[in-house]
Design brief:
Number of strands of chain A: 15
Shape of chain A: globular
Oligomer: homodimer
Radius of gyration of chain A: 21 Å
Strand content of chain A: 15-25%
CATH architecture of the largest domain in chain A: 3-Layer(aba) Sandwich
Number of domains of chain A: 2
Largest sheet of chain A: 7 strands, mixed
Helix content of chain A: 40-55%
Largest interface: A-B, 84 and 84 residues
CATH class of the largest domain in chain A: Alpha Beta
CATH superfamily of the largest domain in chain A: Type I PLP-dependent aspartate aminotransferase-like (Major domain)
Distance between the termini of chain A: 51 Å
CATH topology of the largest domain in chain A: Aspartate Aminotransferase, domain 2
Number of helices of chain A: 13
């Protein structure tokens, strides 16, 4: 009889609730607010198709062959150039390599910096894909509370002082997933000071930072990092397309070099054809205009969702106005459970992600639930939020 | 002052010698026998270009969006169908998911089955990308000798009996990298019996098994596996193209399910565009004919290299005739060092990979060196092998 003993690190890890929800059968009247997907309306597919045809015509020998682990050199240069000139990201200390999506930066950062049972400090709630990556390395997770200005820095400092073997601070400072909040400039300065004081690296996960719809731009942590404490995880998933799995990391060159050694034995290199395609797309010089269009679309969707929430949910839930990103975070009144709400919504063919999913302790009751506004159509937003309003008032009344 | 403490698992791991050699500057007269690359002449780029254009035309919304971690459903079905009907690979117990190249199957197998300090038994010499993957998990490696019939099964049994916490047997039974040998049918049966007897899984790494040029087909271990002890790592890198990074795993469904959870937090999913492209390519029904053409090309290259070796190296080295795959393994006489030969060759702009690179103990002196015949041109084979002959006789004479 076959007996499978899984490794300790994987024993208790379950498939992410979100991915499971994505696999729910879809009916014509169902509405998903649970994804983290960009709108397919934003995919620059016509430019991509033209570039792909050119690559097959002239450069297929390179594009289809093995490449080096660091990534396609011209793309690395193009990313460095754009991130540096536009956002001040990257210094002489730093290097950039191409990764298989932003998710791989998280995997690589843990792999090269964190031993089993070492501590990682992160916002709680936070991105489930990062939390599960940390769990898959048997790291010890300590959650830091989040408010409208981002991670609570006093709590962070206390944790840095008292928790054993802290090796990494994980944060989504700009348009947080799931909370939608953005870390204030003051807190950005303080987190950098703390990283330096305690000799701990910061993994700045920023897949959405170019998608701002209101408020003023704030510098990334990486752009204020003069000594190499910040590992910046970037992605083309939300500004070009996620299915191509092209992301990048900008970090101290010694860390990037070790990440390269790790990546070599994980997937050798990222799909080379699409590395070349993204490079050519960046060199067309149209990406800034393209991102402007994405922002206009998503701002309209955010505002439409907020207006519908005002109409249907006022009084039975509270929410923030995110200045960017893809999500609105809502909270039920004291004593109510986001998970119970999401269960009731599922019976009405509406999917949302319950707040506990994003918590370091997933058994914790969370009043929160996350709504995605980038993927659903305007009609789905209006109809879905109306149903949430009904279900909410039934739940709150009951 | 920034101080970086890397994780214990990555502390000593260095970039693979082969990858570093690939980065050597190329001159017009240099010849590389060190790669593991397929010939670009085999890339079915015209079919691929047509399919890519169709996907951009009709299916870009799916191909550019997030997909599920398991992979594109039609491709999983197409792989299962082909592997099962043509090679008897996969039973009712098993499942198939798409991976980011065959390399990722190795990463996933360790991640879900092997704890730090657990033992992995593997051929020594063996594929450096696997050995370094094992090292990157702090696994304990025990090398098993290889002869012309593959892994020495008596040594394997002894190791299974005496080594602590053996969790995995890693083998390349068909057209071994680097040795070029193929495990005999008798040994195939015995290794399966041992896996069952000791309750240990076998990772069957088979990127080349469809590339046979002589001798008779042997069943894969997976096709003889009735109880789920074999994890089959497959790849499209050598029969379609490596730059696209599409591979697959066929294994017991519980293992595949846990691998899916692991993959979710490693790279979410494999590049979806090329998953769809490979699916469409498989459905064209031309792959068997395409592989026939690859085999004809590589057989001619193998034979050309063997003929050149007969002319220039007879008496100063010994080698096998591989029945398939991409490599010829040669050995110097007693008392000579493959590493020293490769150093001397480098001065003559010829690159080969020294045998010690592939050993579990890389500090061990190896008389072997690996020659790749798939990538160099006929002219490069003739010229390069002639230079090797000269350098060899200088080295042996000195």
């Amino acid at each position: 009889m076959l007996k499978i003993n899984f490794s300790d690190r994987m024993g208790e890890l379950q498939s992410s609730t979100i991915r499971e929800i994505l696999k729910m059968p879809q009916t014509p009247d169902s509405v998903s607010f649970s994804a983290g997907n960009p709108s397919p309306l934003t995919f620059p597919h016509e430019d991509m198709a033209k570039i792909a045809a050119e690559i097959f015509q002239n450069d297929y020998v390179t594009a289809l062959q093995y490449g080096i682990t660091e990534g396609y050199e011209p793309l690395r240069a193009a990313i460095s150039q754009r991130m540096s000139s536009k956002y001040g990201i990257g210094s002489d200390l730093d290097d950039v390599i191409v990764t298989s999506g932003g998710q791989q930066v998280i995997d690589l950062a843990i792999k090269v910096l964190v031993n089993e049972n070492d501590t990682i400090l992160c916002e709680s709630p936070s991105f489930i894909g990062a939390l599960n990556a940390f769990r898959s390395y048997n790291a010890r997770l300590v959650g830091i509370p989040v408010d409208k200005d981002g991670m609570d820095i006093d709590s962070l400092e206390k944790a840095l002082r008292t928790e054993p073997n802290v090796r990494l601070i994980y944060t989504i400072p700009t348009f947080h997933n799931p909370c939608g909040c953005t870390m204030s400039l003051d807190r950005r300065k303080r987190i950098l000071e703390l990283a330096k004081k305690y000799g701990v690296f910061i993994l700045e996960d920023s897949p959405y930072f170019e998608l701002r719809y209101s408020g003023e731009d704030l510098p990334t942590l990486k752009s204020m990092d003069t000594e190499g404490y910040v590992i910046f995880a970037g992605s083309f998933s939300k500004v070009i397309a996620p299915g191509i799995r092209v992301g990048f990391v900008c970090a101290h060159r010694d860390i990037v070099s070790k990440m390269t050694v790790a990546k070599q034995v994980i997937d050798v290199h990222t799909n080379l054809f699409f590395q070349i395609l993204v490079d050519r797309y960046l060199r067309l010089g149209v990406i800034d205009g393209h991102i402007e269009k994405c922002r206009a679309l998503y701002m309209q969707k955010r505002d439409r969702m907020l207006a519908a929430m005002d109409r249907h949910m006022a009084g039975s839930a509270a929410w923030n106005v995110p200045d960017g990103g893809l999500f609105i975070w809502a909270e039920l009144p004291e004593g109510y459970d986001g998970l119970e709400l999401c269960r009731r919504l599922k019976d009405r063919n509406i999917s949302c992600v319950p707040g506990n999913t994003f918590c370091v302790d997933q058994k914790q009751v969370s009043r929160g639930f996350r709504l995605n506004f980038s993927l659903p159509s305007d009609e789905q937003i209006d109809r879905g939020i109306a149903v949430i309003g009904q279900v909410l008032s039934e739940y709150i009344r009951s």
